[in-house]
Amino acid sequence: MTLTQLIEQQAKIIWDYHLLHHSLKKSDCIFVLGSNDIRVAQRGAELYLAGFAPLLIFSGAIGKLTEGKFTCSEAQYFSNIAIKMGVPESAILIEDKATNTGENISLTMALLKEKKLKPASYIVVQKPFMERRAFAVFKHYLPEPELIITSPQISYQDYANADLSHDDILNVMVGDLQRIREYPQLGFQIAQDIPDNVWQAFKKMVAWGYTKHLI
Fold first, then answer.
1. End-to-end C-alpha distance for the chain, whole angstroms
2. The domain 3-152+163-207 belongs to what CATH superfamily?
């Protein structure tokens, strides 16, 4: 087996670990996390248009990867995509100051409180390889509401595109796995079990140089 094949084998183990495979059901709102990946916005809009929730929330300021690419906040940019897909503007709530997942949640909760809204169930939309960490962070901040995590329905082999290279995906996957291990003790998210084969895959990927997103 070549090194490239070994890397792909171990990367797929980590990708599969990050995916939660939650079953969708109707909820009080769809909460979309901002990023440079417009497919996340499209997934959120598709779920709204399919009738999964009456409220569509977009959260996110301009980040390192979207500065200079988006002419407005990630939340506003994603909202524009949803409106073009047919989501009514009246069904959308925008939080455009958050710069990390904790702020996505805390600032959106403040906005919901201001609007006198208290959802009891959420569908959270994130990139596939960030599903598990999104779950861990949301459960830390919102332990009570029912939580479903989903992402664009695209395979590992097909996920890379012009905006998100395969190398970027591998680095973020590895970095997020490290955060899943380390962040609970820092009070950022709930603990998640990491099977031994997944952690061994992490160690191999780090040894092969996938370190750009490490803490």
1. 31
2. HUPs (3.40.50.620)
